[in-house]
Design a protein that fits this description.
MeTfrase_dom, about 425 residues, Rossmann fold, 13 strands, transferase, Methyltransferase domain-containing protein, about 40% helix, 2 domains, methyltransferase activity, seven-stranded mixed β-sheet, alpha/beta, SAM-dependent_MTases_sf
Length: about 425
Amino acid sequence: MSPARMSVGEAFDRFFGPGTGLRVEAYDGSTGGDPDGQVVQVHSPRALNYLLTAHRSVALMRAYLADELTFVGMDEGNPYPVMVSVLNRLHARRPTVRELPELARFVREIGLHVPDLPPQEAPAPWRRLAYGLRHGRARDAAAIAHHYDVSNRFYEMVLGPSMAYTCAVYPHAEASLEEAQEAKFDLVCRKLGLSPGMRLLDVGCGWGGMVRHAVQHYGVSALGVTLSAHQASWGQEMIEREGLTGRAEIRHGDYRDVAERGFDAVSSIGLTEHIGVRHYPAYFTFLRERLRDGGRLLNHCITRPDNRHNGLLKDPFTNRYTFPDGELAGVGHIVSVMQDSGLEVRHQENLREHYARTTDAWAQNLSAHWDACVAEAGRGTARVWGVYLAGSRVNFEHNVIQLHQVLGVRTSADGDARWPLRPTWEGQSSQR
């Protein structure tokens, strides 16, 4: 007599064991997991094919996007509670030698194969060679378009009126997202020592929030550069609407094409993650060459908590769904490269907890505008964003990633940094 066929619920219990926080309800009528846990419904063998043919984060995302897996009662716009309470504890155990034949039979009976991939998933890294080598101009433009060219309206709903897609700085625990984003731009302006008549270059300017804030409140003239055509169009329209034409410009293009020099300050807010660690020396050298003597550079970017694992992001979900070709380094490596590029580093700070708050605020916006976001960008894209924002919050809270601002100056040949004896940016407010 052949052995009885193992059910999905039995397979889950066998290979995950107790304490997962999940209750599985499967298409074959079986159940498994914790009786009082978060209910997850497995709708078909196709779901199992997704789950068994990829890394855990990508496998779950594929099944979720294909509607083959449902977390009952989960807020799709803000799945943070589920991720914290369940998914971080979900780890399969290694089967014993005795269990391998039974596992093989179970896999054979479901007809194991790789199903069609969701359209929201970027090609595997080796397939991106069609765009050239990693961090070449064409491939960088494709990666930026994958993430940023969703829809300006979608970003308006998720990011809020500031349209700032970088870590905010919360001046106090009760501050709103908009207050915190303004405080971030203002802190950058003060660290750069901006004053009327100065010239600012903002690379990776997004929708132009930093450019507009600096021009309106500090009296500078500013040039922002972005690889995203959607961002450039939106930002330039806002400049014209706010009467800043002639003092502010948002340029669609690669920062490497900026020919102007002699800037008093350069801000790089959220760009370093996209350029590749091996390009840091050329990047910081290029920006230094855009500064006058005594000019300051502020680099604001996501970092690793150490300097031993610099380079390509290893998380398959991030690489396939949110930031293709994204790379991170520890702040120590960034400081070292800035110094070797001729910049004198004068200050750095870690804003990790602020980014956890920021991603939570974005997730709350996504949840509050869920139906409109789905109508604008599609349910699949909106779901990716929900998972991405929740996962980012978890990673910042648990010190998996950090956010550093590093401030440097182009010191003159005779050693003059034009620097005050003590920092002057704390406690100041923007010029109104």
